[in-house]
Amino acid sequence: MAATGETRKSLPAEIRPGVIVCPDADGVAQLAAARFVQLSDRFAKAEGKFCVALAGGSTPLPLYRLLATSPLRERIPWSRVHLFWGDERAVPPTHPESNYGAAHRELLTRVSLPAENVHRMVAEAADLDGAARQYASTLRRHLRLDDAGYPRFHLVLLGLGTDGHTASLFPDERAPENTAAWVVVTTAPGATGPAARRLTLTLGVLNAAHHVIFIVTGREKADVLWHVVEDPAANLPAQRVRPRQGERLILADAAAASRLLSGGMP
């Protein structure tokens, strides 16, 4: 059952602790952008930099476009923003499926971000394990470590797959959950070609973040979002993202949250 017109009028609203529902995808992007601006100002002043891991796929693109548009663009201290990626497909940056390429088109070319502040995953490298080690070295150079020895992002942006994956951590992935590695190689189930292989941050890194924001839109996400929020037994990768000393926030549109809004009914 979809959200009623009356429900939509009352949105955005926090319907569960840490779960905020907006009327539509534009509302999600606006709320995420406002949070990005707020956090960029706070950490740039407190620590001299704002380190963000960007999400891939198409869901965050409205957010990136919004951040590159006035007046928000002028409110972000871009010279102190450092951009990283949560995961990347094993394709060149010019490939249509490159997460970096999408962010470059929608955001990087439209803001005054120093080139040295952009830290992409070189996932097109022939030696992916070597690329994972190289990216871990990049994280070590730019991020403080938490008490468990993991690099601590100020903000991590994440999406949610219909199978419950996030970044490129998949439900049937055999990589050990408690690995001490910061960046690992994974393979997307059922995918073929170079884009099937991925580099991804591990749960240890995601859970070290100060703030994690999931961006979830579309009716096709309604069932999996319900499981993430209400079904601990599902044990999905996205559920296991719970910052140890930080905040997890899920921003969803009414379509993605329709099952939650209807009390769990299909």
* Total number of helices: 9
What value does the average pLDDT take? 94
Strand order, sheet with most strands: 1-2-10-9-6-3-4
Approximately how much beta-strand content do the residues carry?
15-25%
Number of strands: 10
Topology:
Blueprint: H1 5-9, E1 13-16, E2 19-22, H2 25-47, E3 50-54, H3 61-67, H4 72-75, E4 81-85, E5 87-89, H5 99-106, H6 128-142, E6 155-158, E7 183-187, E8 197-201, H7 203-206, E9 211-216, H8 222-230, E10 247-253, H9 258-261
Parallel strand pairs: 2-10, 3-4, 3-6, 6-9, 9-10
Antiparallel strand pairs: 1-2, 5-8, 7-8
Helix pairs in contact: 2-3
Q: Can you give keywords for this protein?
A:
30% helix, 266 residues, 9 helices, three-stranded antiparallel β-sheet, 10 strands, alpha/beta, seven-stranded mixed β-sheet
